[in-house]
Amino acid sequence: QVQLVESGGELVQAGGSLRLSCAASGRSFSRYAMGWFRQAPGKEREFVAAITWTNTTLYANSVKGRFTISRDNAKNTVSLQMKSLKPEDTAVYYCAARPDTVAVTTRNAYPYWGQGTQVTISS
């Protein structure tokens, strides 16, 4: 079992940067694939980025080149560095964990979720 707690969400102007963090508790964190998803009001929760325990990464096309996912297995944390933020990036961002070495984009493949952190980008 893994518990996840996100932090770092705030109100930022368009073009700005923000770093989200996710702290994980539980054993074997390093063997989990970790992901970030987001959900805007009235929309489905969508994939943003994922990383395997060997640091292989996946990104949604909408954030590729602007967002960077990373992890620190010694500290049980995963981060999402976001730059060149746009108003359409506004959403609640969720950290998710998957007890597998493979990172995937499918929401249902991640059994563990945090409570989310609000990111608001003003134009």
How does this model look, in words?
By secondary structure, the chain is mainly β. It contains no helices and eleven strands. The strands form two sheets. Strands 2, 4, 5, 6, 9, 10 and 11 form a seven-stranded mixed β-sheet that branches. Strands 1-3-8-7 form a four-stranded antiparallel β-sheet, with no helix packed on it. The termini are far apart. The mean pLDDT is 95.
| Number of beta strands | 11
The largest pleated sheet is described as: 7 strands, mixed
Order of helices and strands: EEEEEEEEEEE
Subunit arrangement of the protein: single chain
**In terms of structural class, how would the helical and strand content be classed?**
mainly beta
Strand content: over 45%
CA-based shape: globular
Q: What does the average pLDDT come to?
A: 95
Q: Terminal Cα separation, in Å?
A: 40 Å
- By DSSP (H or I, 4+ residues per run), the number of helices equals 0
Fraction of residues in helix: under 10%
Question: How are the secondary structure elements laid out?
Answer:
Elements: E1 3-7, E2 11-13, E3 18-25, E4 33-39, E5 46-51, E6 57-59, E7 67-72, E8 77-82, E9 91-98, E10 112-113, E11 117-122
Parallel strand pairs: 2-11
Antiparallel strand pairs: 1-3, 3-8, 4-5, 4-9, 5-6, 7-8, 9-10, 9-11
Which structural traits does this protein have?
single chain, mainly beta, seven-stranded mixed beta sheet, four-stranded antiparallel beta sheet, 11 strands
Q: Would you summarize the structure shown here?
A:
This protein has 123 residues and is mainly β. It has no helices and eleven strands. Strands 2, 4, 5, 6, 9, 10 and 11 form a seven-stranded mixed sheet that branches. Strands 1-3-8-7 form a four-stranded antiparallel sheet, with no helix packed on it.
